[in-house]
Amino acid sequence: MTDFAALGLAEDLVRAVRERGYTVPTPVQSQAIPLILAGHDVLAGAQTGTGKTAAFVLPLLARLGAAASAPTRRIPRALVLTPTRELAAQVEESVRHYGRHTKLHSLVMFGGVGINPQIDGLRRGVDILVATPGRLLDHLQQRTVDLSGVEILVLDEADRMLDMGFIRDIRRILSVLPKVRQNLLFSATFPEEIRELAGSLMRDPKHIEIARLGTTADRIAQQVIITDRGHKKDLLAHLFESRQWQQALVFTRTKHLANRLAEQLDALGISAMAIHGNKSQTARTRALAEFKTGRLRALVATDIAARGIDINELPIVVNFELPMVAEDYVHRIGRTARAGSSGGAVSLVCVDEFRLLEGIERLTRQRFTRDIEAGFEPDPNARAQPIEQGRGQRPPQSRQFSDAPRQHTGQRRSSGGGGGGGGNSRSASHSSGNSGNSNGNSHGNSGGNSNGNSYGDSQRRAGGNGQRAR
Ligand code: AMP
Question: Rounded distance, CA 117 to CA 379, Å?
Fold first, then answer.
């Protein structure tokens, strides 16, 4: 069993890790930290929940701290790009925490909030900049940020950034960085686009792979319960009570359903709030804070809103609806059982979603038992209906959250408007107006709608608590 000091980290960092309560490095930390300290480019396959943030933040701080810059020229020496505001905020919080005994300064910048405080922050001097791509481009265009001193670049959740359509923004940012630098790329999955990006970006990278691609963490008990679409809400309320869930993160595909379900659960006496891209940053932060304190029992979220949310020891994730993109299943259930704690994922699946379920089984290389909960049995004659993704829902490959990527013209694709003067729209996530179920994703999952599948042949009665899929 190694500890953090044995990985080569200096005492000021080890102390900060200890103060956070961690003594044993997670696998991604044990593998990545020495490589990054040695100056290698690193390509890491690690999904959220593995401790990947500290795996790059700690050695990044160590390298910058070991060669402090002249105090007169405090321009960013490390740049971390993340897909969402929440993740940016959480990464920067980690930088601040782990760097508390160093003299390094960090700044987080994302859209949806005023740009001026960020400009002031940059003027005061920053060593480590954590940003979403859209807002960083705003600063580049306004020449309020100087990236000519970047020695270390981190692309965090790179697959998600590409999913959200940030590739052009990323390439434009890359084009202004010094050519000689250390590159770290973290991604849960490695579709072709990521491999291309890595190929163009990295010099002789060292590869690390923590969970095998497309596999779900072994320690997460996963259960699939087949029911009718009209029974899901009552089944969910029933599960809360019968299984005595204190808290659950509940996923829907659309913002509209997230809102409605939160209201319905609330009316049934299960305190709930929705969190999605149409909510203001303040509303999202508040909902998350209330959930973290335990005041809310259910947080109902869409995929993108939940991305990067770090909730320690979240025991239950519920897929009220299966995601259109099989990879999102892996990301969703990765919200539970983080860094060692055990958790459970329960999917409520109706006839419309059988094809999606099969896609998830293919991707995660497992076969679920189709459970049935007494009192919520599915109608054996039910026919599949097309899956509605809601107005303004984008097809998965072009999803975006708040920092809407631009097209060639440099204009935002968003119609969410707002944010003049380079600010990002607060509600850009409904921007493209694309709807429909096109999957278009390149990793070979099923997508599309189910078409009258009959129920699976291996249904059985739910035996109370979720059991392992395999
Ligand atoms: P991440 O994958 O970076 O999102 O981290 C997942 C969770 O694991 C976060 O709550 C971290 O604070 C926590 N964590 C990170 N490193 C460790 C560690 N060495 N031991 C226990 N928990 C950790």
Answer: 57
Read off the pLDDT of residues 329-351 as tens digits, 9 standing for 90 and up: 887 887 775 544 456 899 999 99
Residue 22 near ligand 1, beta carbon < 6 Å: yes
Structure tokens at 128: 């480590």
pLDDT for residue 442: 30
- What does pTM read for this prediction? 0.57
CATH class label, 220-390+441-455: alpha beta
Q: Which CATH class is domain 5-213+414-427?
A: alpha beta
Report the nearest atom of ligand 1 relative to the CA of 50. 2
Identical fold for domains 5-213+414-427 and 220-390+441-455, yes or no, is yes
Give the strands of the sheet with 78-81, arranged side by side.
106-109, 128-131, 78-81, 152-155, 182-187, 42-45, 206-209
CB 306 within 8 A of CB 401: no
Domain-wise residue ranges, the chain: 5-213+414-427, 220-390+441-455
Whether the CB-CB separation of 149 and 73 falls below 8 Å is answered with: yes
Cα of 312 vs centre of ligand 1, distance in Å, is: 9
Is the minimum distance from the CB of 48 to ligand 1 under 6 angstroms? yes
* Residue 455 CB less than 6 A away from ligand 1: no
CA-closest candidate to residue 214, choices 364, 333, 45, 356: 364
Beta carbon of 310 within 6 Å of any ligand 1 atom: yes
Which H or E run contains 241? helix 232-242
- Longest distance between any two alpha carbons in the chain, whole Å: 74
Counting ligand 1 atoms within 8 A of each CB, the residue from 338, 341, 342 with the most, and so the one to mutate, is: 338
Q: Using most ligand atoms within 8 A of CB, pick from 9, 22, 154 the residue to mutate for ligand 1.
A: 22
